[in-house]
Specification:
This is Guanidinium exporter. This protein has 4 helices and no strands. The chain is mostly helical.
C-alpha cells in the first residue's frame, strides 16, 4: 500500500508544482488555494507511504515522480522544449525510481 500512497503523493506534487506557476506568485486566489491544498495532500500521502517504505527510497521516488511529471506537463502545456537531452534525463530519473522500487 505504501507505493500506492507514494504514487498519489507524487501526483499531488505535480499538481502543486504546476499550481505555483498558475498562482503567479500567490497573487491569484483559486490557483493559490489549489496549490496549498495539494501541498497538504502530497505531504500527508508521503507521510503515509513512509510508514512502510524506507525514507531514502520513498523521498527519492516522490521527488522523481514530481520532477518527471512536472517536466512533462511543462513540455506539453507550457511549450517548454522537449529536447533529446531533457527526454534522456527524464528516462534516467524514471530508471532510478524503478531501480529504487526493485531494490527496496
Amino acid at each position: 500500500m505504501g507505493w500506492v500512497y507514494l504514487l498519489a503523493a507524487g501526483l499531488m506534487e505535480i499538481v502543486w508544482a504546476t499550481g505555483l506557476k498558475y498562482s503567479e506568485g500567490f497573487t491569484k486566489l483559486v490557483p493559490t488555494v489549489v496549490t496549498v491544498i495539494s501541498i497538504a495532500c502530497s505531504l500527508t500521502l508521503l507521510g503515509l507511504a513512509l510508514r512502510t517504505l524506507p525514507i531514502g527510497i520513498g523521498y527519492a521516488a516522490w521527488t522523481g515522480i514530481g520532477v518527471v511529471g512536472t517536466t512533462i506537463f511543462g513540455m506539453a502545456v507550457f511549450g517548454e522544449p522537449a529536447t533529446a537531452a531533457r527526454i534522456g534525463c527524464i528516462g534516467l530519473i524514471l530508471a532510478g525510481v524503478v531501480g529504487l522500487k526493485i531494490a527496496g
